[in-house]
Specification:
By secondary structure, this protein is an alpha/beta fold. It has helices spanning 44-55, 75-86, 89-105, 121-132, 134-137, and strands at 2-10, 15-23, 30-36, 59-62, 109-118.
Amino acid sequence: MKKTQKIEYKDHLNTFEGVISYDDVTDQKRPVILIAHTFKGQSQFEIDKAIELAKSGYIGFAIDMYGKGKRAENAEDARKLMHELTEDRPLLLKRMELVLKIAKALKQGDENRIGAIGFCFGGKCILDLEDLEQNYWD
């Protein structure tokens, strides 16, 4: 049976709210796929991707890069949210490091099999993480 749930994770200043989706019928460890959102913030689009990945045997993890409840209503707001991280790439990287740490700790997940996809701004997030984890992704 597919299960979808919100998970909270924190850094020293912020609380984030991700969504994971997986099949809870088996205890077998599954690969985790991080899903990084567009510049508008986490939305149903990314959550739907997590659900679809769960149907294929993965754990879909729709990540949150902005913080719990921080979502854009329009393009201007989205640019402001994104700007904070594009102008402070070390902060963006710290948030991606946090997401990776959370993904590796998921009890249903296989910490040695983690992949990622990103949309728009999310692609930048994944590429920054790839720079950090060059050997990890190979």
